[in-house]
Each structure stands twice: as C-alpha cells, then as structure tokens.
Protein 1
Amino acid sequence: MTILATAPPPPGPNPGFESPGVADFQLPPIFGPVTKPVLELVLAAILVYWFFTYTTRRPQLVPSKPQFLGESFYGIVRNSIARDNIGPEFLKYVPFLTTLFAFILVNNLFGIIPFIQFPTFSHPGVPYALAGVVWLMYNIIGIRKHGFLGYLRVSTWPPDVPWWVRIVLTPIEFLSNILLRPVTLSLRLFGNMFAGHLLLLVFILGGQYMLVYSQSILLGILSPAAFGLAIVFTFFEAFVQVVQAYIFTILTASYIGAVLADDH
Amino acid sequence: MEPGQSRGGGAQPPPPSEAWTALSYLLSGFLLFGGIGWGLDALLGTRVLTPVGLLFGGAASLYLIYIRYVKS
C-alpha cells in the first residue's frame, strides 16, 4: 500500500474509476427506435424457430444428430418440467413451455456470447412482458377449467381451516397467487440478468482501468487478476443463465399445474 | 423411481418448483399486513403498528405455507 500512497499524482486528467451502473444498460438506438436488445429479441425468435424447424424437418425413427438434439430438448421440458408439475393434462402445454424455455435460454446466453454480450432480460420491461403472457395464460386456463368463482376458490381458499383463519389467509393467497406471481417471476429473471451483467462489467471495466487509465504500475501488474476473475464469472454467468431460464419455465408449469388441480 | 413420473403417485417428493412458489407467499404476507400496519400508523399517528403488521404477516405466511405444502 505504501507504493500507492507515495506514488506521484498522475500527469494529466485522471478522474478515477467510475463504476459501471444503470447508465451502461441504456444503449443508444441503432436506427430509429430500435436498440440492441430489440434486435436480440428478434434474433432469438428467429434462432428458436430455425432450431426447431431444422431439427424436426425430416423426422426419422433412428434420429440424426440434429433431430436428437431437438428431441432431447423437447424431452427435458416434457419430462422434467411439464409432467412433474402440471399433472395428467401436461401434454397440451409442452410446446408453449419448450418455446418459452428455448427463447429465454437464448436471450440469456446472449449475455456472454462474444460480440453480442448483452442479456436482453436485464431490461426489466422484457421479463415484465413475458411474465404478463404467463399471467394471462394461467388465469385464463384456471377460469376455463373451474369458472370464475371456482377458480378464485381454488387459488385463494385454503382447505380445512376455520373461517377466522381464512379472513387472514385468503387476502394473502389472493395477493400472492393473482397479483404477485408475475412480479416475482419477472423480477427474479431481471435481477439475475442485471446483476450478472453488472458483475462482468465491474471486472472487465475495472481491469481495463487498472491496465490503461490508472497510470499506476502496481495496478497494471494486478490487472490480469481482474480479467481472470471476469473469465471465471463468465462461466458462472453461463450457469446462472441456464438455471434462470429453467426456473422461469418450471414456475410457469407449476402455476399452470396449480390452477388445473382440483384441490390443493 | 423412473425419472419424470407424474404427480400424485403416493409418497413422492414434491416437485422442486414448490420451494420457489413459497417465496411469493412469504412476500405477500409481509407486504399485505406490513402495508396495513403502515397505513394505520400513518392514519393514527402511531409507530408501532408497522412492525406488528410485519410480524403478523410473516407468521400468517408461514402458516399458509404449512397448510399448502406440508399438511396437504
């Protein structure tokens, strides 16, 4: 630390390290109102569409490699997400869940793919929209299955408790199941993507500052540590991105399962 | 157990998503009764009702989670 303290003040303007923040997520428009996340969303939709049409184009009994890949993906969603959480009527919802999982996964992985490197869901509006779709979907499924009052009963009426306990618990259930579910669903995805991107920005911009702008030999020598941690956290982010896409999908399946259940 | 068996087959472990859905119950209790306590505090000029509401809401949420996931 003495080296740092006795180092002469650097020549020229050196405003110090400005830590990355929300401003780094406000990307300038590329043309018109179109920004990078908009292009990423379109690209993700095209990629997902292409992947599933390509892998299921000429289905054969003994699958080719692409077909095997597509079918495995579908199989994971069908068996470990839909069937475990929805119950006997799960098959109807598998295509939606598969598309949802693939779309979120691609968008999340954009956060670490070189030259794209921006997770679309780190803008809160994007997961809000997706959670809104899920919210509409499970409410409509529930109302169709039980009728409006029956649906409210299934989702806000805890079984086998005295009436005075219901006065306390039913408002909580209503708030949780009808109002808060889309919020927690979207905020979880947004928070993870936002924090992950910020973390990578801190290490990469910090390393860049140490190496290029700090004009301190010690910080320059130490800067590879920052870049090394950036690489470590990139792998960690890959893990988080897959997990978050999985959690979003499994929660969607579990909400659909909950409104389809006859009684909890 | 076969991977991905359907629900309702007796003594099966609950699906892993239940841990995540319980979170929104917990939040709701704190928000609802903490909010009621806060509103009453503002209305009556007291300060004690917000923590009381928060504690009560938290306890109610935990009880609800018990009813929804453990008892049934």
Note: The interface with chain A takes residues 3-8, 15-18, 20-21, 23-25, 27-29, 31-32, 57, 60-61, 63-64, 67-68, 71-72 of chain B (CB under 8 Å).
Protein 2
Amino acid sequence: MRVDRYLLLNGMNIIGKKYWYFAISLIIIIPGIIALFLWGLNLSIDFTGGSRLTLSFKNGVNSKTLSAVENTLGAEKIKVYSTQESNNLLFVKTQVIDQNQNKKFQADLEKKIGTFKEEEFETIGPTIGGETTTNAILAVIIASILIVLYISWSFRKVPKPASSFRFGVCAILALIHDVLVVMGLYAILGHFFGVETDSLFLTAVLTIIGFSVHDTIVVFDRIRENLKRTTNLPFAQVVNESILQTLDRSLNTSLTVILVLFALLLFGGETIRWFVVALLIGIISGTYSSIFNASPLLVVWQEWTEKRRKKNA
Amino acid sequence: MKNPRLFFWLIIVLTLISLFIVVPSFNNLSIGPLKTKLSFNQQDLLRKVGIRNTMDFRKGLDLQGGTSVTLMADMKGISVDKRDDALNSAKMVIEKRVDLFGVTEPIVETSKVGSEYRIIVELPGVTNLDQVKNLIGTTAQLTFWEQGATGSAQIAPKTNIPLGLTQILGSNPKQTNLTGNDLQSTAVTFNQNTGKPQVQLIFTSSGSQKFADITKRNVGKVVAIALDNQVIEAPRVDEPILSGDAVITGNFTVDTAKTLSTSLNAGALPVPLITLQSNVIGPTLGMSSLQKSLFAGLLGFLIIVIFMVVLYGSLGAIASLALIIYTLLVLAIFKASSLSPYAITLTLSGIAGFILSIGMAVDANILIFERMKEEMRQGKSRKSAIEVGFSRAWTSIRDSNIATLITSAVLYKFGTGTVQGFALVSAIGVLVSMFSAIVVTRTFLRFIYK
C-alpha cells in the first residue's frame, strides 16, 4: 500500500483554523499594500512613455561605465529615470528621445569608454503608454467578471443552501488575494531593486488569475460533488473533507508548474527573469489561497447567512 | 471513444504528421557507422504536393532582431470621409517601399484607436533606424511624366527618373508640372458602356488647367504616372481632357483598379506620419535569450517526466508519453501555421508561455490519476477506476481550462504584441493539452488495460 505523502495533513481541520489562515494572508498582503501606497509600482515606459536603451559592454558593467552613461545623457539634457544592470547588460530608462539624440549619445559615449553595443532602443510615446495602462486595468476587471459569471453558471446546480454566486465571488476573492500579493511584492521589489512593472507583468498577472481560479475550481468541484452526495453533514465539514480529498492534486498540479518555472528562473535568461518571478510567487500564492482562503470563505459566508436567517426567524 | 483501436491509430498518425512538420530539413547527414548519407527536405516534399509557401517557425522581432514602429497618421488636412482611403494609401506606400527594400516577412497593419488612425510596421532584420526612416518616414511623391523631345538635351537628371520610365517614354522623359497636390481624389468606377472597372481622377481647379495643357500636347501619346520613383500606370491620352475629370480605362479587374486608385490617392491625400512608438532590437540579444529559454524548457520537461514517473509509476510514464505528443502537436501547429495567413509569431514571452504550458499540460493527468487512486483505494478494479477517474475528473478539468481560456481571450483582446503572443500560445496550449491529457492518455490506458 502506498502511504499518502501528505499524511500529516490528513484529518487536519483546515476550516476550524480558518481565521489563522486568513491572518497569514493578511500578514503577507498588508506590507505589500503599504508599499503600494508609499512608493507605488515602478512602472516601465510601457505605461508611462519614455525611451529604453539596452546597452551591452564586453567587459561587464561597473560604476565607471554607469557614471559615464549617466554623465553623457546628462550633458545632453536627457532625463534619466532609472538604470538597471544585469551581467554585461545595462538597461537605461529615459524621457522620450528620438533617433538623432540616441545617435549622438552613442557617439559621445563611445568617445568616453570605447566600444559598446546598443542591443535595443525602444521609444514609447505618452499616448500609447496611457492606452496600455487603461487596457491593463480593463483586462483585469473584465477577466475577473467573466470568470465570476462562468463559475456562477457552471455551479448553478449546486444543492441548496449553498449558492453558485457565492462560489464565484469566493473564487474572485482568492484571485484578488493573489493579485495583491504579486503587486505588493512588485512595489517592494521596484522600490529596493528597481524591478519594473511592464506589460509582461500584466501578462503574468492574468496568467496568475487563470491559474488561481484553476486551483480553486478543483476544490470547488469536489465540494459540489460531495454536497450532492451527502445531505446531512454540516457545510463546514463537507468543505473541510473536500479540501483534504483534493489536497494531493492541488499540490501536485502546482508543483509541476513551479518546477518548470524554477528551470526558467535559473536558466531562462535575464529578459524574462522578473516575469518568471512574478509567475512563481503568484502561483504559490494561488495554491495557498485556493486551499486556505477560497473554501474557508465559502464557509464563513454560509454560516453568516444562516445566523442572520435564524435571527430573523 | 467507443473504439480505442481507432483512436490509437489516429493518435499515431497525428504524431507522425507532427513529427514530419517539426523535424528540420537536413542534408547528407551520416549517422554513426551508416554508409549511406541521409537527407530530408520538407520543402521539396511540400512542393510536390503543390504547397509553395515556406514552412518555418515565425520568429518575433525580439527573437530575430528588427524594428517595430507605431505611427500616427495626421489627418488634420483630410476631410473625414476620405480618411480611411488616405490611411490605406499611406499603408500601401510603406508596403511598396518595404518590398522594394527586400525585407522578408514584413508586417504593415492599420488600426483605428478612438479617433486616431495608426499604422504599425514591423521589419524583421532591419536594425538601422535611418533606413527605417527612409522606408516609412517620408510622404509619397506622385509625379506625372511625358515624352520629351527626342534628341534635345536631357531635362531631368538621370537619377531622378523613375524606374522603367525610359522603356515607356523613350530615352528622354520629361517631368510635367503636375503633381499629387493637383489631384483632388480618385475612385474606382464602372464604365457605362462596357461595365468594366476603371479609375477616375478628379483634379483641383489648378490641376485641371495643368492636366488640360498636358493632355492637349500629348494626344495619342503616353503619359506616365509615378509614385516614389516607380511607374504605377502609363495610360495613353485619347483626347484632350479639359474638365479636370479623367478616367483611366484598361484591362482592370476590380482589385487592380482598387490598387491603382489607392496608389494615386497616396499622392492626392498625403498624410504626415508621426512616430508614437519605436523599438529596435539587435539580433544577438534575442538569439541568446531564445537558446536560454529552450534549454530551460528542455530541463523543465525532463523534471516533469521524472516527477510524474516517481509519483504515478507506469501511469506517469504514459502521461509523459502524452506530454511528448503534446509538445510535438503544439510545435507542429506553430510551424504549420506559417503556411496559413494566420501565422503564429513566436516571441520570447510566447515561448515562456509554451514552456509554462508544458507544466500545466500534465495537470489534467494529475487530476485524473489522483481520482483513480482514490477509486482504487475504495476497492474498485483498475479498469473501472480508469473509467471513473476520467469521467469524475472531467468537470474540474473543463471548468478550470475554460477559466484559463477566458483570461487568454481577454489578454488577446486588450494586449499588444508580446502580450498577444503569450495569450495565443497559452490558448493553443490549453486546447491541445485537453486533447493529450484526456484522449491520448485514455486511449493508451485502455489499450494497455483491456
């Protein structure tokens, strides 16, 4: 007989300790929210507009090259927003500059420090930046609404007194949890390490949304099935058992994705590194929230409405 | 799913087709001690069945280097009803120049955002912004040419003479004072007698005067029209046209007439283009990123195979086989799409999405296998556990994958470039993974545990 790997968790009362798990979530989310209010996100030129130069130096980037780059740009009255280095690459973010300014900068820098290569030169005007921001916000909101609607529809046959709408809303609450974790983390990373929030970050957030719901649905699906089968057990117990029954698969499905992301993080190169970090954190958070937030929230809501009904009766 | 044998062979055939598509062409490859050299050329085989397009992975600019530019067309000087025409003409001018320049697989698209008209240009392999400026930054010049007096001194310097003009107008063509500014509008109309499509030109009042003079002195001769140093049409003047309202007749189809009209409009409705966004990516950065992600992908793939085999034993091995088929199918779709007008462009984020999808593709298998384990623990036989495992796990697989498809669709709708690439790849990944994890795995399992 194969022994269950998560034996320790078997028979555990997750629902009984639900407020503890909510507290853990808050402990993680609150610093992020504070960081968001204090510093905001370090938005890339994708959202704000501006120019980005990717310079590569054969002998790596040191403080000398960095100050040479900054001085050259400063001499040409080009505002530098930020610089970020990675191995032999230097990413410089500036105000919008055109090709002539860029050429002059390259020539001047070459005089100072010798040959280097401009790997990428990107300029995004403020109109495009504004549009990207609006679209990003719209995308997150519309995706969330569509998912609530889909879950409400898909769980419509769930037996009373549970309601399919509640399933949808709880899935979204778990999803907001995950988005807040990642955004908070990015506010902190952006402030201390200059990590940028770019349009790839938006992609990461929406992937996390999809995955978070994916995980939540696995548990919800089991709750739905168990509710149909057992009619006399209290709701909290049905939910608890459903979580335990699906624990193995929740963890295993997340684990395969996490393993792949680790491979990408270690070997995937600089360009997508922070994108992978966002995904990794989001997916870990998504796994946590689907087990410890989404379903316990269902129970809290259920018990609350029952209490109110009793009061009114 | 009544006949597992049929499905089994269907899967084998699909896999072989995918393999054929994905394997790159090679020449005179010798394997170990084999004396005969092996060659395989897909393109030749495709040509034999009548497919002429090249089939290859289409790489995005971030992987192969190149330039992308988003331009806004300044429509201030153009009346509202002519703006769509003007935009199409500006697009056509850019397309022509890019073609002449010899860019492979360029993308020139128009879009309308709010009340703004835009042109998006992607030029793979072009990393010199000065060249790009020449290709897209200047407005088109429409010129009209007539035959010069033979033997007299050359009026136009040789370099300014449009390509192919001397073949039409003789060795000494002469530029007239008529230009695109004199043209008010053009349209495709139909000849009242023959019903054939023709192109109508309406000149401004000063243009009418100039055009009348030109036609008067060129009756029976050819007047050539050139756009950007390229002759686009050389109609013969049948009679003097004094009204400023001319038609060019000829062997037009509706399409060729439209093309000519659009070209002429480029001169008549010149729109200044303002750069909103530009991105120049060097070729080396993309290549190294590509190699790194492919290596990471391969590693991720191996880790998952090990993970699945350790956790689920022989079931895991079958899931790994399904995963190999999944990977082949998705790659084949990417590559084969280059034959269709809806080629899927692979970007760095798209590849990351694909690698991520390998991790997610086994999710359905895990859901099914866990369910099977559970059923077997309750005393079901292996065979019935397989059936129950699949049918019970189906609702959660369906719901969770539809949630992923919803987010992909939203990303595709609201994203640009990189984001759309990612969305498309993950949507294809989800659909194929449902096939591989459910149909493929189930067929193999049924085949083994008959």
Note: Chain B touches chain A through 72 residues (CB under 8 Å).
